[in-house]
TrEMBL record:
Domain annotation PAS: ranges: 11-61
Coiled-coil zones: 121-148
Pfam families named among the record's database cross-references: AAA_lid_14, HTH_50, PAS_4, Sigma54_activat
Keyword flag Nucleotide-binding: yes
SUPFAM superfamilies, alphabetized: Homeodomain-like, P-loop containing nucleoside triphosphate hydrolases, PYP-like sensor domain (PAS domain)
InterPro entries for this protein: AAA+_ATPase, AAA_lid_NorR, Homeodomain-like_sf, HTH_TyrR, P-loop_NTPase, PAS, PAS-like_dom_sf, PAS_4
Sigma-54 factor interaction domain residues: 160-389
Organism lineage: Bacteria, Bacillati, Bacillota, Bacilli, Bacillales
Keywords, in A-Z order: Aromatic hydrocarbons catabolism, ATP-binding, Coiled coil, Nucleotide-binding, Transcription, Transcription regulation
Annotated protein name in UniProt: HTH-type transcriptional regulatory protein TyrR
Amino acid sequence: MEKLFELSHQNPALFVDILESIKDAIFISDHEGTTLWLNSASEAMCGVPKNKITGRNVRDLEKEGLFKPSVLRMALEEGKNVSTVQTVGEGRKYIATGHLVKNKEGKVIAAVAHLRDITDAVKNTSKLQEIEELLEKYSAQIRKLTSTKTNINGVENVKLGGKSNSRILAKKIIEKIAAVDTTALIVGETGTGKSLAAEKIHLLSKRRNGPFVQINCASLPESLLESELFGYEKGSFTGATSKGKTGLIKAAEAGTLFLDEIGEVPLHLQTKILHFLQSKTYMPIGAREPRNADVRIIAATNRDLEQMVEEGTFRSDLFYRLNILTVKIPSLRESRDDIEDLATYFLNMFNEKYNKNKRFSNEVLKKLIQYSWPGNIRELENLIERLVILSEDEFIEEKDLPQKMVEQHMSSNSPYISDRGTMTEILEEMEKKMIIDALEKENSTRKAAKFLGVSQSLLMRRIKKYNIQLVVEESKTFVK
Ligand SMILES: Nc1ncnc2c1ncn2[C@@H]1O[C@H](COP(=O)(O)OP(=O)(O)OP(=O)(O)O)[C@@H](O)[C@H]1O
Ligand SMILES: [Mg+2]
C-alpha cells in the first residue's frame, strides 16, 4: 500500500493510468450525479467524446438515452451499491454496478460505475434458450414417434400367429413372464415380433390397465435419452427459464416401460438403468431427491448382449439383472413351419383391409417357405401387403414375387456350379443382391451396413459400384 502511495506521489496520474488500462468501463460522478471523469473504455462505449459528457448530470444523460437505466442515479437514489443490466448506445448489454464512495463520516462524496460488456454472454444464453426450446419440440416429436401408450387395444387385438414348436414355446414363456411382475428381456432378430411380445406381456399382466410406454433406445443420442427416461427438474439447463419435464419412467407409473434396443444404451446410462432396476428409484436430471416409481421394465434387443459383455460394451451386472426372465423369439429361418401359417394370417388380414380376395398359388407358397427372410415376420408382412395390393389376378403367382425370391432357389440349389457366369460375376451378383436385400430391409445405409457387418463407407462404395439407385423419403432410404 505504502509503495503504491509512493508511486502515486511520483506520478500523480497513476490512478488515472490504472483506470485507463482496464478494459471495463469506469464512470465517476460526484454525490449529485454530475460526471467527473470517465475512462476511454467508457467513452468508446457511449460513442460520445469525454468532454461532451464530463460536467453533465447522469439523470440528463439517462433522459437523452445514452444509457438505460443509469446505475449511478440508482445507487445515489437508493443510497447503496446497485447492480443492473444496462443497455448503452446501440443496444449492447452491460452488467453495471454503481458503487458509492464515502468519506470518513460516511457521507457520500462520489459514485463510481463499473460496466462489463455481456452482449456475447447474453447472446449465448438466448441461443441456449432457443436450443432448449428446439430440443423441447424435438423431444415431443420423438415421444410421438418412439413412445406410444397402447392399452386402448385390449389383449384380443394383439395376436401372436405361428404354430411352429419354437414359436409355441416362445408364446408359453411369454405367458409365464406375464404372470409375474419382474424385469424381462426379449431377444431375437429384427422383425421377429419382440415389440409385439412386449405389448402382449403387458396386456396379459396385472398391469394391463396401466400405461404401456415404449422407447427405442437406438433412436436418441445419450443426453436426450437420459432426459427422456428420467426427466429433468425445472431450471436444470439454462437457469430459471427451463420448465422441467416428466420422464418416461414417471409416464409409465403403475404400468410397463418397454426399453427397445437396450443394446444401444451407452454405458453411462446403463449404470443409471441398473440403479433403477435395483432400487426402483431414480433421479431426474438436476433433482436433489430420488423419486420412487412403480414401473415394470421389459427390455428387448437384437444384439448379442453376452458378446457385448465380453467386449466391454454392455455392463455385465445389468445383463444378469435383465437376463433373469428371457424369451427368445425365433427367426423365421428357425421356424419355417410358421411361414405358411403367418403368410395366410397376413393374407386374410390384408384381403380384409383392402377388400380383396387374393390367394397364393402353390408355387408361391413354396417360394415363401424356401426364402431366407432376413427381415423375418416384418418382411413377410410387408411383402404380403404389397402382393395383395399389386398382384393383378386372384391368384398371387410366382411372377408377382420379387426377383430375389425367385432366384434364391436356383442359387441355393447349386451355389458352386453354375452356368450363370464366372466366379467373380456370381460373387458380385450375390454381393449386389445381399446389399439390396439389406437396404430394403433396413431402409437406412447405416443400418444396412451394420446388418451386413461391413463399414458404411464400404457399403457406399459398393452401392456406387453396382449403380444401386437410392431414394430417400421421410428420412428412410429405399432402393429405386
Ligand atoms: N407372431 C406374430 N403374429 C403376427 N404378427 C406378428 C407376429 N410377430 C410379429 N408380427 C408383426 O411383425 C411386425 C414386426 O414385429 P415387431 O415390430 O414386434 O418386431 P421386432 O422384433 O420388435 O422388430 P425390431 O427388431 O425391428 O424392433 C409387426 O407388424 C408385428 O405386428
Ligand atoms: Mg421392435
